[in-house]
Design a protein that fits this description.
The complex is a heterodimer of chains A (169) and B (572).
Chain A (H helix, E strand, L loop, with lengths): L1 H33 L10 E6 L9 E11 L2 E16 L2 E6 L10 E2 L6 E2 L6 E2 L5 E3 L8 E2 L1 E4 L2 E5 L2 E2 L8 E2 L1
Antiparallel strand pairs in A: 1-11, 2-3, 3-4, 4-9, 5-6, 6-7, 7-8, 10-11, 12-13
Chain B lengths: L1 H11 L1 H9 L2 E2 L5 H24 L9 H11 L3 H29 L7 H23 L4 H14 L5 H9 L6 H41 L4 E2 L3 H24 L23 H9 L5 H22 L8 H27 L1 H21 L8 H7 L1 H12 L26 H9 L35 H13 L3 H11 L26 H9 L26 H15 L6
Antiparallel strand pairs in B: 1-2
Helix pairs in contact in B: 3-5, 3-9, 3-10, 4-5, 5-6, 5-10, 5-13, 6-7, 6-9, 6-12, 7-8, 11-12, 11-13, 12-13, 16-21, 17-18, 18-19, 20-21
The chains are: A alpha+beta (169), B mainly alpha (572).
Chain lengths: 169, 572
């Protein structure tokens, strides 16, 4: 009897040992793969076009050209994305082209009033307000300022598919 | 041969296992439905072999992926064949695996004690779908990139979606790390999962068959020969179908290189169109259920089938209902979606644009792709770059070739601009629709040979010969007669070599060098200098200046392009 007990105890001990061994082999790679990576969020002012190049009232799409980091790469003066700029006198309103629904590029509606997404037909007013379609929120506004006659945009990205606006880093 | 067989058998005992396989009892006798499993294994072998071959010419980086797939498809002999076989074998496998699950569910093969094998088939189908989806990203073209971007967006809607998306992408955005991860998943992780599930399924079925055979002892045929014959026939048909499809489309296509800054009318692959359709109809609070909930729910029904089905024998009513509903919904939605896109003019237009870009990129890349990638190749191509500049900066007012909209143009049509024939028509009828007629310059320039309406008899028409020599001189710089007439008659309003128009307040442009590259360059950079249209050009006549908006090199490119296209000359 004592002999069987000892054998089953031995089994448990050995099985736990084997499990611990496997875990020690698996833990580092799993931790490595699931580790959170990615850039810091926060303000990133990018210079775009000169203010006097923007037509009054009519939205214009401008590219965000800046240093783009992707993993180990640094691409100087690469296209990070684009924004819609709408000028109103000395003020410029910027809207991210990224659709808050699922991230396609929102284009100007035919006829020039407002915006439409080519993927799921979400539409927005000229102010970026949600009008029709599946988008859960208005287009994402971005901060702008005019420096030395140039329009600068604080380029940020937000989570898609949520009614709230949550920035992603 | 037999002696070598004996030698090997003595060491690895393969004959016993081979025999066990060939003589294994088949529960219920041979059937075509059972051959589906064999065909799936056959397709897995095809996919492994073609996949390994493709890996010898593929590079999983953002800069190289598209170029290497282009190289494989268009430049290497038989590359298209390999890619085609791989693509269609994969899709055939997905369809067949789904059909397999459907047959199992309807036939009651999910019931105890076969439920583990059934679940292996369900999850196996999921893993095969994941193979197709990850594989679609690898060419890093517009189609794959945008479809995956949207799918990752959908994933983010679910619980812990943000963390899952990070896990898949290796970061907050789909980029290099995402490509590397999907590559690793596609070529090693998922194939191992699929193979393991296949093995699990076979173990489950064999254990089941052995148990029944042990109990009944009659009515069991062995695998050899009738089932094996059917297996081979079905697998051969699948091989023929895959070969036929590959040959028919001459390998799968390649879309333009992935461009995160572009407008792309994203659509998923055909086998996911039904999900796309659901997504279009459910908005607001139902969105989550439409995009993620319904498919997950359908999946869960199939996973839970062994426990939902209370009947012990025969065809499964629950299974049939589930299959009919799922198949009907998927088929119907796919049809509706495809049809709508086919009749959607806006989508078709966007799709045509995308196809054009793909064709251009594929043609350009045949000369080689720079190490910085196909986007840089496209950006630096003079013609494409110039077209993009013209479309962006000029085509909202001007028309040139297929760029710009004649109905909306409020600046001259540039086709033929500054050629002899164009100048002739300008001298005769400057307010023609294609010239000043629709512009703020309408009425500014009088005809040279037609008297104005308010003529009091002092109008001196220019003779045909004079007009011809003016046109010839302006278009080519030849003929002194033309220059003399310009100095005499045109400088009332125009400048010539900086002289004329005494007070300098007129709006007519400098005619020296009209239609030459320096003139065009100067006009594009800043129309308000004395070199072209002078200071009035910017005010009421509103051609914007591009100096400062685009680089001098781009202004030069745009000038050369516009001039070449206007005169019908080759560019660059």
């Amino acid at each position: 009897m004592a002999n069987t007990d000892r054998r089953s105890l031995l089994k448990v001990v050995l099985a736990s040992g084997a499990a611990a061994l496997c875990a020690s082999a698996l833990a580092p790679p799993i931790a490595y793969v699931v580790a959170k990576r990615g850039g810091a969020s926060g303000e990133k002012w990018v210079r775009t076009v000169r203010l006097d190049q923007l037509p009054e009232g009519r939205p214009r799409k401008v590219k965000i050209v800046t240093d783009v980091h992707d993993a180990w790469k640094l691409d100087k003066d690469a296209e990070l994305g684009a924004v819609w700029l709408i000028r109103n006198g000395d003020k410029v309103r910027a809207l991210s082209v990224v659709c808050p629904h699922l991230g396609c590029s929102v284009g100007a509606s035919e006829g020039g009033k407002g915006f439409t997404c080519p993927c799921h037909d979400s539409s927005f007013t000229a102010d970026g307000k949600r009008q029709n379609g599946p988008s859960p929120r208005d287009m994402d506004p971005l901060e702008t300022r005019v420096t030395d006659g140039f329009v600068e945009v604080d380029f940020r990205r937000f989570r898609q598919g949520t009614p709230e606006r949550i920035e992603v880093g | 041969m037999s002696r070598f067989g004996d030698y090997l058998d003595d060491r690895i005992g393969f004959r016993r296992r081979m025999q066990a396989m060939l003589e294994h009892p088949i529960a219920g006798g041979p059937s075509w439905a059972r051959s589906v499993g064999f065909t799936l294994v056959f397709l897995l072998i095809v996919l492994t072999a073609t996949g390994l071959a493709l890996m010898t010419t593929y590079a999983p980086t953002v800069e190289a992926a598209w170029a290497s797939v282009h190289f494989t498809t268009y430049l290497l002999p038989h590359g298209w064949l390999l890619r085609g076989l791989h693509r269609f074998a994969g899709e055939a496998m997905l369809v067949l695996a789904a059909a397999h699950v459907a047959m199992l569910a309807m036939g009651g093969a999910h019931r105890r004690p076969r439920e583990v094998g059934y679940l292996a088939a369900v999850f196996g189908t999921g893993a095969i779908a994941a193979e197709c989806i990850t594989g679609g990203l690898l060419p890093w073209d517009q189609q794959g990139y945008w479809a995956r971007r949207v799918e990752i967006g959908i994933m983010q809607m679910g619980p812990a979606g943000s963390d899952l998306a990070r896990l898949v992408q290796g970061g907050p955005e789909l980029g290099q790390l995402g490509l590397t991860r999907m590559f690793a998943a596609h070529v090693i992780v998922l194939p191992l999962v699929v193979a393991a599930l296949f093995r699990l399924r076979r173990r489950s079925e064999w254990t089941f068959a052995e148990k029944i055979a042990a109990r009944h002892n009659t009515g069991f045929e062995s695998y050899l020969p009738r089932q094996l014959a059917r297996d081979l026939a079905l697998a051969a048909s699948a091989a023929l179908l895959v070969g036929y499809m590959t040959n028919k489309v001459h390998g799968p296509s390649l879309d333009a290189p992935a461009d995160p800054a572009s407008d792309y009318p994203a659509r998923p692959e055909w086998y996911l169109m039904w999900l796309y359709e659901v997504r279009r109809h459910v908005h607001g609070p139902l969105e989550f259920w439409g995009t993620l909930g319904v498919p997950v729910l359908i999946g869960l029904v199939f996973v839970a089938l062994p426990w939902l089905d209370k009947k012990a024998h025969g065809a499964s009513v629950v299974g049939i209902v589930a299959v009919v509903l799922a198949a009907g919904a998927i088929g119907g939605l796919t049809y509706v979606s495809t049809e709508r896109d086919r009749h959607d003019a806006k989508f078709q237009k966007a799709r045509n644009e995308a196809n054009k870009r793909a064709t251009t990129a594929i043609t350009l890349a045949k000369k080689g792709v720079p190490p910085s990638g196909p986007l840089v190749m496209l950006r630096d191509d003079p013609e494409l770059h110039a077209r993009a500049l013209f479309t962006d900066k000029c085509a909202s007012c001007h028309v040139l070739g297929d760029m710009g909209d004649k109905k909306k143009a409020d600046a001259p049509v540039l086709d033929g601009w500054s050629t002899e024939a164009w100048i002739m028509s300008m001298l005769h009828d400057p307010d023609g629709d294609e010239r000043f007629g629709r512009t703020p310059y309408k009425g500014e320039m009088p005809s040279m040979d037609v008297a104005p309406k308010d003529d009091k008899g002092d109008f001196k028409p220019m003779s045909k010969e004079e007009m011809t020599s003016v046109a010839k001189f302006l278009a080519t710089g030849e003929g002194e007669g033309g220059e003399k007439i310009i100095k005499d008659r045109c400088t009332t309003c125009h400048l010539y070599k900086g002289e004329g128009d005494d007070n300098g307040e007129e709006t007519a442009p400098e005619l020296a060098g009209y239609g030459t590259l320096p003139w065009v360059r100067s006009q594009i950079a800043d129309p308000s200098t004395p070199a072209t249209y002078r200071k009035n050009a910017l005010g009421k006549h509103k051609m914007p200046k591009l100096d400062g908006e685009i680089s001098p090199a781009e202004i030069d490119l745009l000038a050369r392009f516009t001039l070449a296209k206007a005169k019908g000359l080759p560019f660059p």
